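Lecture 7 notes: from sequence to structure.
We start with the chain below.
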Amino acid sequence: MNASPELVALLARAERVLDRLESLLPGPVEAPDWNAATAFRWRRRQGRAQLEPVTAPHRIRLSDLKDVDQQKQRIEQNTRQFLAGRHANNVLLTGARGTGKSSLVKAVLTAHAKQGLRLIEVDKTDLIDLPDIVELVRNRPERFILFCDDLSFEEGEAAYKALKSVLDGSVAAVADNVLIYATSNRRHLMPEYMDENLQARHVDGEVHPGEAVEEKISLSERFGLWLSFYPFSQDEYLHV
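Predicted structure tokens for the same chain:
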């Protein structure tokens, strides 16, 4: 039985519509030229995500950073363990602006790029893509730091849940060659309010935070290594 001209025209029109819709859908993420750079940025434009090489990264050296010796020693040890395939922790660096948090992460890359360390900078708004980034690098021989700079969240943000899921490993097993290094001005990554602290309970002489506070500190607790940075004194500032 032959189809009517009207049906043929309708099917042809539907096929054209589907072709247009397909062109709007994000395609699979293509791997970059891994030899083009040691640092990359995850970017999403017009619904399509890609890793962009950073061709001129900041070449900060560990020796350039002053008065943060303890923080340098601890993040260096953690990174060396990571490069050696031993147990290493996700790192949260917290403190005031201008105290060297971001510079320290960049200096670690400079120090260990020749040993296969790579850095991928991910904006907060793109944290929902973390599972895709992990899958993209999972089978690579390099070791990757996913770097989230100046991280903080407000109530109910999707990025908060995405990061928490990855740190928990509840979306998929985190690859052995991936760690997350994040910096923040907030110790617990989220705003804390006086009325939430008033919800604390006293049990047998111990203070137990309320549910709202427990939820807020739960994300920061998933970083195995916390590094605190403090404002410089006048002498330290002049030294820097």
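Points to note: Residues 31-239 form a domain with the Rossmann fold fold (CATH 3.40.50.300). Residues 5-24 form the longest helix (20 residues).
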